[in-house]
Amino acid sequence: MSVPPGQGLQLLNVGCGRHFHPAWRNIDVVSYDPRVEAHDLRLGLPAKPGQYDMVYHSHVLEHLTPADGQRLIEECYRVLKPGGVLRIVVPDLEYIARSYISALEEACVEPEDPATESQRALRVAKYDWIKLELLDQLVRQTSGGLMGPAMQTATGELAAFIGHRLGHEVKYANSQLAEVPAGDPSGQTATPKAKPTRPPARVRWARKIIKWMLGKEALKWLDVGQFLDSGEVHRWMYDRFSLQELTRRCRFREFRVCTASESYLLGFADFELDQVGGVVRKPDSIFTECRKPQKI
User: Fold this and answer.
1) What is the predicted pLDDT for the residue at 167?
2) C-alpha angle 267/83/250, rounded to 5°?
3) Phi and psi for 167 in degrees, rounded to 5?
4) Are 64 and 111 part of one and the same domain?
5) Is residue 107 domain-shared with residue 61, that is, in the same domain?
């Protein structure tokens, strides 16, 4: 595409959270801004066939089940014009897994000199973090899981290590601003904690009935189930091979792994969606693109 960025192009940002560009049509499950349309992504994309030149979603796909994820990619294919570009950004399972193996090997090295014990403690702390990074969002049952407190309490070299891996995601874990709103499929946005609101009467009565019929433990099941359906947890993980296979099943072609600034779309970096001021927003990501064939 040789058109200047944003001019004459139809661009769709899916699951944008609070980070978006006004040249795009921005949609998300929950709207945090009047320029963002609220829409449940599991219901498909609110667009006509062949409407868009590019569809972009960052840290969205992993929050869907594999089946729902494939339906989203099929929807992206439907709404793209022939030759249109799909850009997918997700946490990179390969990168995280390789980092885990490296951290494991380093943590297993016993210091020969007691003076280096502090170095070993740092290696163990890095290992503990990488294990959280790999597993926590897959298994957590409360908002923030174990990663939130770990980011808040990290200091010194460990804090720098986490910051290098996660970039801007660390910011929302600072101080008292670490609450991610339920229903935010990106799982990245920080907001000040709001005062808890009183549940509707029907919800209060439903909880009383459940407690009376099944006991207090059943209320925990209900709370966990509601949290798991809130959109914060990861339902799946992807790497360069699985993304290529997924997009190929959905009839896309010309799959490639690129950097945060590279794109089939001329001037994509100017929108500052994957990097801001030359700094990658989510360094733990894999950035990929593919095309809908010109001839279908």
Assistant:
1) 87
2) 115
3) 60, -130
4) no
5) no
The answer to whether residue 123 sits within a structural domain is yes
* Backbone φ and ψ of 295, nearest 5°: -105, 120
Residue ranges in the chain assigned as alpha helix (H): 66-79, 93-107, 117-139, 147-153, 156-166, 201-214, 216-228, 240-249
Q: Are 236 and 88 in contact, with CB atoms under 8 Å apart?
A: no
* Share in percent of the chain as helix, strand, coil (round to 5): 45, 15, 40
Question: Could you give the C-alpha distances from 87 to 27, 53, 231, 247, in angstroms and in order?
Answer: 15, 11, 21, 11
- Is there a domain that residue 87 lies in? yes
pLDDT of residue 196: 57
Tell me the C-alpha distance between 229 and 33, whole Å: 23
| Ranges in the chain, pLDDT < 70 | 1-7, 114-115, 172-197, 296
pLDDT, tens digit, 9 for 90 and up, residues 46-105: 999 999 999 999 999 999 999 999 999 999 999 999 999 999 999 999 999 999 999 999
Domain coverage including residue 122 = 94-173
DSSP secondary structure letter of residue 187: -
Q: Which of 11, 60, 62, 66 has the alpha carbon at shortest distance from 40? A: 60
Give residue 91's region: left, alpha or beta (phi > 0; psi -120 to 50): beta
Residue 124: exposure state from Cβ atoms within 10 A (0-12, 13-18, ≥19) = middle
Amino acid at 237: M
List b or e across 147-182, with b for residues whose CB sees 16 or more CB atoms inside 10 angstroms: bbebbbebeeebeebbbebbbbbbebbeeeebbbbe
Residue 213 lies in a domain: no
The span from the CA of 196 to the CA of 7, in Å, is 44
